[in-house]
Q: What sequence folds into this?
């Protein structure tokens, strides 16, 4: 059953390029004295959570922040490598707010909400200014100007970066702002705390139940509003580029309390990851998309070619992205690059021991940079060795830590031999459905960053996750939350002895006791691994009706087995990582089923959602705009039971077309 009656995206009226500025100027405000009476809970301390908590506290609100890590600095945002987009047009290569907006909508395969994406493009420039002011050490050109590079899906250079550790540097900036507020007493920080439940009173979100992961104690916390900035759910696949602790629990608890889940099947597969080396692995390593700036991707033209890459002459190499997509070449969007790599490997052209890899080659870039350096230094007729030496120095400056990381993991020197890469689960475009204010379908409950569905459609362009997280935290939620909180200034803090808090804590305790009392034979890790195998094989880079239907049956059976055979060591009132893991896996086992249901329902291919039944003659994604130009927003009813609500997407400023990067 599908319905659209309960979804109001609250998109402001007026022309697209004026919506945000007009709305920002008219949204209700909370005066400084009243802000001091209002408490806000923020779950997660990555870029979205840390920036939101710091900004709201700076504005005068009382803020409580929670993270399950030992420090906010360990949030998974720190792992982002390649960069952050902004429409600054520093390169004078034709960039603009509209072009960033257009590239993002097109990159998302026309499944994004126009108003949100335009707002994102508008505030992108402010983010860079904010971060520079915080001291984020962005790369700079020789003259001191900020440097830019290209990312997939664009034909301009708009990606600001700090070597291959952009996420780390941006997070340290947001963390510094957060720590300043903690020091001033305006933010109370709860490290090693995991949100286990949201508390609803009279239809509004009024707080959370959190578990102290050191002592096991359950705690009740009141808030006039709760902001979920808890990241994505890529670890439902077990093997992904996410930190091993990344989970869906906070968002899933909100979903089961009434927050609709948007586009759960839209998963991004990143094309440049170090290939799986064996069954012992529990984590995959990302090689930044920035490497596609200068690296050339290829496979041998001969099937099952076992020669070393250096022994394969140029005319026997297939630079398949350059061949298939001449206009964008190696910088096509991630979903297209990933599927192209899979297609070549499936056809027998893969490299390495597993044959599930392609080459990412820097030889041409090293030569090009070396010649440029020789010219700059007036070295005439340089030798091949001199060119190589100078070229390597330039590459080392731009990408050195990524090259070092690859060498440490694989034992191969990417300055000498091409990297081997293969697609892996990376980012999730789906998440809690939110309106223009970033509020979920539960009043007072917001979702920011990767935890919401909002800006990316069916595929996220590279370097836009950091942009969205910081946009939501620094420049969107501080304004939009006023629309709700301005009506809450008369609400006194609700004591946590309220029956809703008592009932919520009791339900969390009951679930923990149930997990501990099963005393089966199988570890939570093994169930997670088995779920990931089902998801990757049947709801991964390619999906089909038969596979999805069987996946749903398999996941339901696996869930029943979990609740009868999982073995959780240790007790409830202590530091117990096995219990933490089991609780998170239980949520993944429910989410996995919804993802497969969503993928089964969406009978088209778009972005990261590739249904094998719906493709062009050339193997590209075939959208069905007549029937599926909507956001899937799923309402939880009962176990294995959801109702689909649709937010119809309207494009008034962009001509919808079949996506082409040729």
A:
């Amino acid at each position: 059953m599908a319905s659209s009656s309960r979804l109001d995206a609250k998109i402001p009226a007026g022309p697209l390029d004026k919506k945000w500025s007009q709305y920002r100027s008219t949204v209700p405000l909370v005066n400084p004295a009243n802000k001091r009476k209002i408490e806000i809970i923020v779950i997660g301390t990555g870029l979205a959570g840390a920036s939101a908590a710091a900004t709201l506290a700076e504005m005068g609100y009382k803020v409580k922040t929670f993270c399950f890590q030992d420090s906010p600095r360990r949030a998974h945002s720190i792992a982002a490598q390649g960069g952050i987009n902004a429409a600054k047009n520093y390169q004078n290569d034709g960039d603009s707010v509209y072009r960033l907006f257009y590239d993002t909508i097109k990159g998302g395969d026309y499944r994004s909400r126009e108003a949100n994406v335009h707002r994102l493009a508008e505030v992108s420039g402010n983010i860079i200014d904010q971060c520079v002011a915080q001291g984020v050490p962005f790369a700079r050109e020789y003259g001191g100007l900020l440097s830019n590079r290209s990312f997939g899906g664009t034909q301009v250079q708009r990606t600001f970066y700090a070597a291959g550790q952009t996420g780390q540097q941006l997070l340290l900036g947001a963390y510094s702002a957060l720590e300043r507020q903690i020091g001033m007493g305006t933010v109370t920080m709860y490290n090693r705390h995991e949100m286990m439940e949201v508390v609803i009173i009279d239809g509004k979100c009024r707080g959370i139940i959190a578990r102290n992961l050191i002592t096991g104690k359950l705690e009740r916390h009141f808030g006039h509003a709760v902001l979920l900035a808890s990241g994505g759910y890529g670890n439902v696949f077990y093997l992904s580029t996410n930190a091993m602790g990344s989970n869906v629990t906070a968002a899933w608890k909100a979903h089961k309390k009434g927050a609709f889940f948007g586009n759960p099947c839209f998963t991004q597969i990143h094309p440049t990851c170090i290939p799986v080396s064996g069954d012992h692995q529990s984590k995959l390593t990302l090689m930044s998309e920035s490497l596609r700036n200068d690296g050339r991707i290829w496979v041998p033209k001969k099937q099952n070619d076992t020669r070393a890459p250096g022994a394969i002459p140029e005319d026997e190499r297939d630079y398949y992205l350059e061949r298939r997509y001449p206009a964008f070449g190696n910088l096509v969007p991630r979903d297209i690059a990933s599927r192209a790599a899979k297609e070549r490997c499936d056809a027998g052209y893969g490299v390495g021991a597993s044959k599930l890899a392609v080459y990412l080659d820097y030889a041409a870039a090293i030569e090009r940079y070396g010649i440029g350096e020789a010219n700059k230094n007036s070295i005439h007729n340089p030798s091949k060795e001199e060119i190589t030496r100078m070229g390597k120095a330039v590459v080392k400056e731009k990408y050195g830590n990524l090259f070092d990381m690859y060498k440490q993991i694989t034992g191969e020197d990417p300055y000498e031999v091409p990297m081997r890469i293969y697609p892996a689960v990376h980012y999730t475009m789906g998440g809690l459905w939110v309106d223009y204010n970033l509020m979920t379908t539960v009043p007072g409950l917001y979702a920011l960053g990767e935890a919401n569905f909002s800006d990316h459609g069916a595929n996220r362009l590279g370097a836009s996750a950091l942009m969205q997280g910081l946009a939501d935290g620094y420049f969107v939620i501080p304004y939009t939350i006023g629309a709700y909180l301005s009506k809450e200034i008369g609400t006194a803090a609700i004591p946590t002895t309220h029956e809703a808090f008592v009932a919520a804590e009791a339900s969390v305790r009951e679930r923990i006791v149930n997990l501990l009392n099963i005393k089966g034979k199988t570890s939570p890790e093994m169930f997670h691994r088995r779920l990931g195998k089902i998801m990757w094989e049947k709801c991964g880079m390619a999906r089909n009706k038969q596979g999805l239907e069987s996946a749903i049956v398999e996941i339901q059976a696996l869930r029943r087995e979990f609740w009868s055979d999982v073995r959780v060591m240790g007790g409830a009132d202590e530091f117990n990582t096995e219990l933490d893991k089991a609780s998170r896996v239980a949520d993944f086992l429910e989410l996995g089923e919804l993802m497969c249901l969503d993928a089964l329902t969406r009978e088209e291919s778009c972005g990261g959602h590739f249904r094998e039944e719906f493709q062009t003659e050339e193997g590209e994604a075939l959208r069905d705009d007549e029937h599926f130009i909507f956001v899937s927003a799923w309402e939880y009813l009962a176990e294995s039971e959801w109702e689909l609500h649709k937010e119809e997407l309207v494009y008034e400023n962009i001509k919808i077309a079949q996506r082409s990067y040729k």
User: Anything to note?
Assistant: Residues 201 and 469 are 29 Å apart (CA to CA). The longest helix spans residues 384-410. The radius of gyration is 24 Å. The longest strand covers residues 419-428.
